[in-house]
Amino acid sequence: MNFETLINPPQSVFDQIIHWTTETEDWGHQLADYHYWSTSFDKYWLFTVVEKGTTNLVASVSLARWDDPKDTLYSVGLFYCVEKYRGQSIAKQLFEKAMSIVGDDNATLTGAVKMVDKYASTFGFDKIPAYWNNITSIKTQNLVMPEINNEEYGTKDWSDVDPELLYEYDRTICGRDRRKMQTNWFNLKNTFTKVVFDLSETNKVVGYATIRIVSKNKLSVSPFYAENLDAAIALLSALLHQIPLVSSYASLGFVHPSINQDTIRLLETFARTPEDINSVPLYKSQFTKKFISSPNAKVYSVWDSTHQFV
Sorted alphabetically, which PANTHER family does this protein's record hold (predicted)? Predict the structure, then answer.
């Protein structure tokens, strides 16, 4: 069968990527993520191979360029090949095309458990942390809503908060400019975002979090940042109360540095029993030139496991 390459293809091709990656890899996305990535980064490429003369997906890889006054960072995502076409190096050739654009700049990706070594040895993503990012989840039917008597912290909807306060707090987490990304992310449909404040100080943001409805009717916590566990509890409580019919969704999932065990402690506060929580390694954030560290104690869940490292 003949194939052809499409760069930044129609939405219908992206929809197939989401369909197949959901079915075979259990990745969680929204169909609107294509527009989000295309408009939030400084440059975005979606490389795809389709069956010639059609838009039937064969393989994909995405590349985002994120400029900063001090450097440029690329991120690679959506590296996928439809199962019946695997073993022909079709997706690998797309990956190599993306890396030819990266050149000598730093690049990052999220390496799944079975792919970490290959990304390091074959493509040079060999700046790797010792810890994993775990997926920690609970079925929503096993959630409970405890009474939170916390006079230290208060929460607000993100739209009621000065954007500069949110931006300044986010710089303490990431260090790169995500102002535009924040606004676009929070405005996506089926997305809920709250901000938590220290009530003892005026306008002191101590965390924020977003929960998205994604593939397979799951609730994806992305991101979730907080200065401490008490602030995190207040934040999650406010978010869960904001989402109508929480128990109608399949599960609630966090993706977090495994060395931050407060994510599990947070979920235990909202679980019927600790045994209802499942936590397993999911991926590592890998880099080509320079590893970029994050304040792991504050990261209860990362932003976007396709194109973000924290």
Answer: DUF1248 DOMAIN-CONTAINING PROTEIN-RELATED (PTHR47408:SF2), PROTEIN CBG01304-RELATED (PTHR47408)
Domain ends where: 87, 104, 121? Answer: 104
What are the backbone dihedrals phi and psi of residue 154, each rounded to the nearest 5 degrees, phi first? -130, 160
Instruction: Give the integer Cα–Cα distance in Å for 74 and 65.
Output: 5
pLDDT in tens, 233-269: 999 999 999 999 999 999 999 999 999 999 999 999 9
Residues 79 and 147 in one domain: no
Whether residue 223 is preceded by a cis peptide bond, meaning omega within 30 degrees of 0, is yes
Q: In this structure, is residue 114 part of a structural domain?
A: no
Owning domain of residue 40? 3-104
Can you tell me whether residue 288 is helix, strand or coil? coil
| pTM for the predicted model, two decimal places | 0.97
Q: Give the DSSP letter string of 125-141.
A: --B--SSPEEEEEEEGG
- Cβ neighbours for 59, distance < 8 A, ≥ 6 positions apart: 48, 49, 80, 81, 82, 85, 90, 91, 94
The residue written with tokens 């030819």 in the block is 100
Q: Is residue 169 part of a domain?
A: yes
Alpha carbons 194 and 252: distance in angstroms, whole number: 16
Contact 140, 301 (CB under 8 A): no
pLDDT tens per residue, range 35-59: 999 999 999 999 999 999 999 999 9
- Which of the listed residues 65, 87, 104 is the one where a domain comes to its end? 104
Say yes or no: 189 and 44 in one domain: no
3-state secondary structure of 235: helix
Please indicate, yes or no, whether residues 66 and 141 belong to a single structural domain of this protein. Answer: no
Asked if residue 199 and residue 254 are part of one domain, the reply reads yes
Instruction: Quote the number of domains for the chain.
Output: 2
In which band, very low, low, confident or very high, does the pLDDT at 148 lie, cut at 50, 70 and 90? confident
